């Protein structure tokens, strides 16, 4: 039998492989849910369990959040080194992304390669 570490506050537990002591992962094989070791061939079936998964929304592209491609049309450029191509100039755009008492976020776009980063 595999050993277990139990956290009673959340009823979360981890099973460990009795052969090599690595963490056992959940696996679904031919309609059966089981614990499976990813290092050695050990596996152990689990009865009365259903696997569920979460899906996440696709994050928006940064250009659409900033106002689309038109947001970069009338911006100024500044002397700053691109970390991708080492070009010495980039466009910049300041946006208030957090609360009003926090500083504005500066977004940069390299004039040479189009690499984007923020500060």
From TrEMBL:
Zinc finger residue ranges, C4-type: 17-40
Which InterPro entries does the entry mention?
A: Rpa12/Rpb9/Rpc10/TFS, Zn_ribbon_RPC11_C, Znf_TFIIS
The positions annotated for binding Zn(2+) 1 are: 17, 20, 37, 40
Entry keyword annotation includes Ribonucleoprotein: no
Per the UniProt entry, what is one GO biological process? termination of RNA polymerase III transcription
Sorted UniProt keywords: DNA-directed RNA polymerase, Metal-binding, Nucleus, Transcription, Zinc, Zinc-finger
* TFIIS-type domain span: 78-118
Q: What is this protein called?
A: DNA-directed RNA polymerase subunit
Annotated source species: Sipha flava
């Amino acid at each position: 039998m595999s050993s277990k570490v139990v956290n009673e506050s959340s009823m979360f537990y981890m099973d460990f492989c009795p052969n090599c002591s690595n963490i056992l992962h959940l696996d679904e094989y031919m309609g059966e849910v089981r614990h499976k070791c990813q290092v050695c061939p050990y596996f152990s079936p689990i009865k009365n369990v259903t696997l569920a998964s979460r899906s996440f929304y696709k994050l928006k592209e940064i250009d659409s959040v900033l106002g689309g491609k038109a947001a970069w049309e009338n911006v100024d450029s500044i002397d700053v080194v691109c970390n991708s191509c080492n070009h010495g100039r980039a466009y910049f755009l300041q946006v208030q992304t957090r609360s009003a008492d926090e500083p504005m976020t500066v977004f940069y776009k390299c004039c040479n390669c189009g690499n984007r980063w923020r500060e």
